[in-house]
């Protein structure tokens, strides 16, 4: 059985989860970056890091919009509102 410290060590950070939520909420990496007071490339990097940690694609770019994939929608359903 995995201990709590191991579970927390493998869990995504709240910073990454908040960035993910804002990208989905705003539908835009640039708008989420402005709200987070970060650059757009920094937010993109955070999302790639989160996707790497979870082993799945969470966001798809459809035209100029960022929309959650099915796994992204499932993750959103488990998170409290930002």
Structure description:
The chain has 82 residues and is mostly helical. It has one domain: Arc Repressor Mutant, subunit A (Orthogonal Bundle), CATH 1.10.10.10. The chain contains five helices and two strands. The chain has helices at 4-10, 14-26, 29-36, 40-54, 70-78, and strands at 59-62, 65-68. It has a two-stranded antiparallel ribbon. Helix 2 (14-26) crosses helix 4 (40-54) and helix 3 (29-36) packs across helix 4 (40-54). It is globular and about 30 Å long.
Give the gist of this structure.
By secondary structure, this protein is mainly α. It has one domain: Orthogonal Bundle (Arc Repressor Mutant, subunit A), CATH 1.10.10.
Structural class: mainly alpha
Provide the low-confidence segments as ranges: none
Strand order of the largest sheet: 1-2
Number of helices: 5
Helix content: 55-70%
How many β-strands, per DSSP? 2
What proportion of the residues form beta strands (DSSP E)? 5-15%
Query: What is the count of distinct domains?
Result: 1
CA distance, first residue to last residue = 32 Å
- Biggest sheet record: 2 strands, antiparallel
> What is the general shape?
globular
Briefly note the CATH topology name.
Arc Repressor Mutant, subunit A
* CATH homologous superfamily heading: Winged helix-like DNA-binding domain superfamily/Winged helix DNA-binding domain
């Amino acid at each position: 059985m995995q201990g709590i410290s191991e579970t927390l060590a493998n869990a995504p950070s709240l910073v990454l989860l908040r960035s993910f939520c804002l990208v989905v909420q705003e539908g835009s990496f640039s708008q989420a970056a402005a709200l987070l007071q970060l650059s757009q490339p920094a937010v993109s990097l955070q999302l790639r890091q989160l996707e790497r940690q979870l082993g799945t694609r969470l966001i798809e770019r459809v035209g100029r919009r960022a929309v959650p994939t099915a796994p992204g929608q499932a993750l959103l359903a488990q998170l409290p509102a930002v």
